[in-house]
């Protein structure tokens, strides 16, 4: 928000509005995918570790 100057004093204000909803939604979607991929990686490691430890 910034003042609008008249000749000798402020005569109003300017308010700038930015749309951030789409940015936040994309950020949340990326974070969810990162979290899920991390969980999948841990599950795969655990499965591989169990398979490696099984006797033949």
Describe the structure.
The relative contact order is 0.08. The chain has a two-stranded antiparallel sheet. It is rod-shaped, with a radius of gyration of 27 Å. Strand 1 and strand 2 (10-14) form a beta hairpin. The protein has one helix at 21-53; strands at residues 2-5, 10-14. The chain is α+β, with helices and mostly antiparallel strands and 56 residues long. It has 1 helix and 2 strands.
- Poorly predicted tracts of residues: none
Distinct helical segment count:
1
For the largest beta-sheet, the strand count, sense and barrel status come to:
2 strands, antiparallel
Q: Give the N-to-C terminal Cα separation.
A: 71 Å
Beta-strand percentage range: 15-25%
> Structural class of the helix and strand makeup?
alpha+beta
CA radius of gyration = 27 Å
Major beta sheet, strand line-up: 1-2
Give the topology:
Elements: E1 2-5, E2 10-14, H1 21-53
Antiparallel strand pairs: 1-2
Summarize the structure.
This protein has 56 residues and is an alpha+beta fold.
What are the main properties of this structure?
single chain, 56 residues, alpha+beta, 1 helix, 2 strands, rod-shaped
